[in-house]
């Protein structure tokens, strides 16, 4: 075997072996991660703190945090039934999360930031939830076509999330989306 | 002999690259843009520093709110982080130079034992104030995901600068930024 080939094999072995460990998605028939271990409340709490504004978001983590923080604001407005404001924050959340997904689009229940520190990382599922709630608001305000569009997007993002990480949270969300996806019942 | 050296050199480079990638967590999609590293990121819309309270190495509680109106440098680091080790001496020099001028400097390590930090600081001859973020909550509040990450806070309690990665804290760029912040009223 030539020296060059040995060298290339050495590099591939050294890089690939440790490098793949953290990114293999959990798929298939494995039982879903319980909702107690991954849910919206936990994600919102984990990303509260120093506020991220769009102009100052520079790195992947900033975009994820920004997306979650905007979502927290949207959830509050939704509870207050302040629909226009809620829609604005859901959209802002999606803008951040879409940008995040350009860096990385695999959901992961324990993403290792560095030694001993993992985070719940669910950009796709958060976008699914945003679109679901935008769909509900659209329907409430009589905009049926916007509702359908949002529910379709919600379904796509929930599917993407479940492909990379099967969670009860994602499965509940998927069920909710499906139950709302038909035409409005009067 | 020369050929063998070359071969050893290549193996060394390969091991170094692999080591660097391993220490990056094995996943490269989160590596920050090169332009964002080791330089001051100034915030266009500075946000207020989150409130937090953590223990120092003596076991006393330090509440960041007690430093309102002062210029603060918060350095998030870890004893196991090579870049943190690298920037330690220059940060110490900065502390020595600016402590008497009113700069508040804290190094915050998360989820480490006080003894580990004490031993490390003794070994490295560093005496900057160190705080322990036992649960990692303070790091979470700031969204730290790289060690070291440093924030500069002005007298209005606004986070005005951030750096990620090892810095030389004795450069003219660094000291002029801190001078400027100290001058502001």
What would your notes on this structure say?
The complex is a heterodimer of chains A (186) and B (185). Chain A contains seven helices and two strands; from the N terminus they run H-H-H-H-E-E-H-H-H. By secondary structure, chain A is mainly α. Chain A has a two-stranded antiparallel sheet with strand order 1-2. The longest helix of chain A has 21 residues, at 83-103. Chain B has 185 residues and is an alpha+beta fold. Chain B folds into two domains: 1-27; 32-183, 3-Layer(aba) Sandwich (Glutaredoxin). In chain B, strands 1-8-7-4-5-6-2-3 form an eight-stranded mixed beta sheet. The longest helix of chain B has 22 residues, at 2-23. The A-B interface holds A 3, 7, 10-11, 14-15, 18-23, 46-53, 55-56, 58-62, 65, 103-104, 112-117 and B 7, 10-11, 14-15, 17-18, 21-22, 25-30, 32-33, 36, 41, 43-45, 47-50, 78, 80, 110-111, 136, 139-143, 145-147, 159, 164.
- Oligomeric state of the chains in view: heterodimer
Q: What is the rounded distance between the termini of chain B?
A: 65 Å
The third-level CATH topology of the largest domain in chain B is: Glutaredoxin
Count of DSSP E strands of chain B?
8
What's the number of helices of chain A? 7
What structural category do the secondary elements of chain B indicate? alpha+beta
Briefly note the CATH topology name of chain A. Serine Threonine Protein Phosphatase 5, Tetratricopeptide repeat
What's the alpha carbon Rg of chain A, rounded to whole Å? Answer: 19 Å
Mean pLDDT of chain A: 88
Low-pLDDT sequence parts of chain B: 1-6, 11-37
Shape of chain B: globular
Low-confidence stretches of chain A: 16-26
SSE topology sketch:
The complex is a heterodimer of chains A (186) and B (185).
Chain A (H helix, E strand, L loop, with lengths): L2 H18 L19 H7 L13 H20 L3 H21 L4 E7 L2 E5 L1 H18 L3 H21 L3 H13 L6
Antiparallel strand pairs in A: 1-2
Helix pairs in contact in A: 3-4, 4-5, 5-6, 5-7, 6-7
Chain B lengths: L1 H22 L17 E8 L4 E4 L4 E3 L8 E6 L4 H17 L5 E7 L3 H10 L6 E4 L3 H6 L6 E5 L4 E7 L7 H12 L2
Parallel strand pairs in B: 4-5, 5-6
Antiparallel strand pairs in B: 1-8, 2-3, 2-6, 4-7, 7-8
